[in-house]
């Protein structure tokens, strides 16, 4: 890619960013759009809708930037929780890393790369100059200037590790402080018990009650056995859909739209009132739900939520083997009640095992199939290859503007469109693996999306011209550094364009919220406050971090574009967390270890490529002296895992005991324990009444049946 093609891509995406931000600053001030741009504030009754007309409403203004910047981290913590704070810390961490990298890369490494003579570039025609001239490939073989790159690798690694240590230490202390300041939560006093042994003389509920009353007589509180409610969940879903259809039909002003003929395709037969039909169907669904709820008493699953009177006892019960047989009375942490994923909860062990195998095969399959758009994208970056594939386009491709748009903008746009389908697929895969919590599904999907991007976007693009045709090279580990050193710098221009398209424009479109805006225009906006998709947003940030770390030595030109992305993302997502998104669950910052591990992987990858680069550049001494760097990085990672990772798995006994002692002076703890008894009631067993007729229930029908 030439410099003018990159500037074309930057110009297009910069224009789109300004357009999205300008439209947002205008549309957010319109009274009819408050449900689109401030649904969280509406739910919290903090939104003030202005109906009086004024000219300022029609003019763009940067006031939203000031409003997003103003709240402190403590205020964000109280509003959105620790997960949101950790999410924003990823942006600040990236900004710190690449601010330092930008100083070294742009002011030291980039001039050295540009002034090299290895590629024999022409300095007079800068616009048509290949971006390869800005990479380390342009430095002369054996040049002593390469020792500056060598020193930069050590200094940069030390800075990144220091910042990682600081963030790990800071977030772990925040996690402990957040725990101390939180009110008593049901999941802190509860564990999940699986593989409850079956008994011919008693139900699972009675077995759990007897077992824990015998072994924890003074601290056991209650249990809630899981039941098979998949059929009820289907009925509830159908009833909700029917209720939404009915509500939309009632809001229709045209009476004629409420009538249709009951014959074939609504074209023949007598006219009937659709409103009456929908109400009758809704009543029938609710009657079926109540009948199923009444008959669900005996459909128990060998799993139960068991609650205790203290956190410390719950932790002991969690980590100590409960029965003589280790495969019975198996315990695991209980998620928050709002975090429980009920649809797949009652699946049998064999069903969960089969689905895990199916998901693994499907993940491999979709990873392989994604190579098709990758090859297509790589073809677009090479005009000669594109002319070979499509000879009839030769005359069009000779136009300067067309060639610049195709090579600079179109490849990253196409790749971004294909990538938009990946996060929903991965969240579906994770939900089928038998996880019992939405947060577990989100973390699993986050790792899947990140690995998918690293392989399919980075390695597949980098190696598409070499390793895919020389697969045997990958089977020889000694040749991997030289293979990567030869292939990675060649794709620097593509990844710069990718950062601009997928980073700048995609983040700005998040602010604009086009789909909710269209739904609002057609009066189909959901009343539910959305939650941020950590499984798609965190991998995107981490992948950009991998690009920045990897190309720090190879092509520092990417660093300014990354800095713009991190600044843009920080402001926009702060605005969204304050106005749009509400947390669906709270993990207490458990996403940070994923960030740490991804950064360590990126550093080691940079070191491996550096070993190959110095070997290709005829500087074997520097190549050998780089080898201790990945070893030291992995030792640092091992220290962090032992020092901080246990805090992100479970809270220490010191913290649990301190909180339990504080509860002794809390007058509301007895009320909390009373509510804890029913905290883990399956929502499918709770009463649902959408229609106007029928007896409205005020307590779970399951309890009524048991009484």
| Order of strands, widest sheet | 2-5-1-6
Q: What is the total number of structural domains?
A: 2
Number of DSSP strands?
A: 6
Low-pLDDT stretches are 693-707
Largest sheet entry: 4 strands, antiparallel
Q: Roughly how many Å apart are the termini? A: 75 Å
Residues in β-strands, percent = under 5%
| Spatial extent as radius of gyration | 29 Å
Helix content: 55-70%
Shape assignment: globular
Supply the helix-strand structural class.
mainly alpha
* Assembly type: single chain
What is the mean pLDDT?
A: 82
Please tell me about this protein's structure:
- This protein is mainly alpha-helical.
- It folds into two domains: 3-122 and 149-183 and 352-643, no CATH class; 186-348 and 654-706, no CATH class.
- The protein has 31 helices and six strands.
- It has helices spanning 3-27, 34-37, 39-43, 63-69, 73-80, 82-114, 146-181, 204-215, 230-250, 274-294, 311-319, 349-369, 371-381, 383-389, 394-397, 400-408, 410-419, 422-431, 438-463, 480-487, 492-512, 514-521, 534-554, 558-579, 592-616, 620-626, 628-643, 645-649, 653-663, 669-676, 701-706, and strands at residues 190-194, 220-227, 259-261, 271-273, 300-308, 330-333.
- Helix 19 (438-463) packs parallel to helix 23, helix 21 runs antiparallel to helix 23 and helix 23 (534-554) runs parallel beside helix 25 (592-616).
- The longest helix has 36 residues, at 146-181.
- The protein is globular.
- Mean pLDDT is 82; it is low at 693-707.
């Amino acid at each position: 890619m030439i410099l003018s093609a990159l500037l074309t891509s930057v110009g297009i995406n910069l224009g789109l960013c300004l357009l999205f931000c300008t439209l947002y600053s205008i549309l957010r001030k319109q009274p009819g759009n408050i449900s689109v741009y401030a649904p969280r504030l509406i739910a919290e009754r903090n939104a003030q809708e202005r109906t009086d007309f004024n000219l300022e409403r029609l003019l763009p203004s940067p006031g939203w930037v000031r409003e997003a910047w103003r709240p402190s981290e403590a205020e964000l913590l109280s509003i959105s929780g620790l997960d949101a704070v950790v999410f924003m810390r990823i942006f600040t961490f990236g900004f710190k890393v690449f601010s330092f990298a930008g100083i070294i890369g742009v002011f030291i490494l980039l001039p050295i790369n540009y002034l090299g003579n290895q590629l024999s570039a022409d300095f007079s025609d800068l616009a048509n100059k290949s971006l390869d001239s800005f990479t380390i490939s342009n430095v002369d073989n054996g040049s002593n200037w390469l020792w500056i790159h060598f020193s930069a690798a050590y200094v940069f690694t030390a800075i990144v590790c220091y910042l990682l240590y600081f963030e790990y230490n800071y977030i772990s202390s925040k996690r402990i402080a957040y725990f101390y300041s939180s009110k008593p939560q049901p999941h802190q006093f509860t564990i999940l018990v699986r593989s409850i042994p079956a008994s011919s003389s008693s139900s699972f509920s009675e077995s759990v009650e007897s077992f824990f009353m015998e072994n924890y007589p003074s601290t056991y509180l209650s249990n809630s056995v899981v039941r098979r409610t998949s059929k009820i969940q289907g009925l509830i879903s159908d009833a909700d859909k029917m209720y939404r259809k009915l509500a939309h039909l009632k809001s229709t002003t045209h009476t004629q739209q409420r009538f249709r003929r009951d014959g074939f395709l609504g074209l023949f037969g007598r006219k009937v009132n659709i409103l009456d039909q929908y109400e009758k169907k809704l009543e029938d669904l609710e009657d079926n739900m109540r009948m199923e709820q009444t008959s669900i008493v005996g459909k128990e699953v060998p799993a139960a939520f068991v609650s205790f009177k203290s956190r410390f006892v719950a932790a002991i019960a969690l980590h100590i083997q409960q029965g003589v047989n280790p495969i019975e009375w198996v315990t695991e942490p209980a998620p928050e009640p709002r975090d429980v994923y009920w649809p797949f909860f009652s699946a049998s062990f064999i069903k969960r095992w089969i689905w895990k195998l199916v998901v693994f095969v499907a993940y491999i399959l979709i990873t392989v199939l994604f190579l098709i758009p990758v090859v297509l994208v790589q073809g677009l970056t090479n005009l000669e290859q594109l002319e070979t594939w499509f000879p009839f386009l030769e005359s069009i491709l000779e136009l300067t503007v067309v060639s610049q748009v195709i090579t600079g903008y179109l490849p990253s746009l196409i790749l971004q469109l294909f990538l938009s389908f990946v996060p929903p697929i991965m969240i579906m895969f994770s939900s089928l693996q038998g996880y019992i919590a939405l947060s577990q599904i989100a973390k699993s999907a986050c790792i899947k999306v990140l690995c998918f991007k690293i392989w399919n976007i980075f390695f597949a693009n980098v190696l598409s011209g070499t390793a895919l045709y020389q697969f045997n090279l990958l089977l020889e580990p000694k040749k991997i550094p030289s293979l990567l050193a030869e292939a990675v710098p060649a794709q620097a221009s593509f990844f710069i364009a990718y950062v601009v398209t997928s980073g700048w424009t995609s983040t700005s479109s998040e602010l604009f919220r086009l789909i909710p805006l269209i739904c609002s225009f057609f009066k189909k906006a959901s009343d539910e406050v959305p939650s941020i998709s950590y499984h798609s947003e965190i991998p995107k940030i981490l992948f950009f971090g991998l690009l920045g770390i990897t190309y720090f030595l190879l092509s520092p030109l990417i660093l300014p574009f990354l800095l713009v992305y991190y600044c843009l993302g920080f402001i926009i997502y702060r605005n969204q967390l304050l106005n749009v998104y509400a947390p669906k669950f709270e993990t207490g910052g458990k996403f940070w270890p994923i960030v740490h591990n991804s950064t360590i992987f990126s550093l080691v990858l940079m070191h491996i490529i550096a070993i190959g680069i110095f070997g290709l550049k005829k500087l074997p001494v520097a190549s050998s002296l780089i080898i201790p760097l990945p070893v030291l990085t992995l030792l640092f990672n091992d220290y962090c895992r032992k020092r901080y990772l246990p805090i992100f798995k479970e809270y220490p006994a010191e913290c649990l005991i301190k909180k339990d002692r504080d509860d002794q002076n809390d007058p509301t703890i007895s009320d909390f324990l009373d509510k804890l008894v029913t905290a883990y009631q399956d929502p499918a067993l709770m009463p649902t009444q959408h229609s106007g007729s029928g007896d409205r229930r005020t307590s779970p029908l399951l309890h009524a049946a048991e009484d």
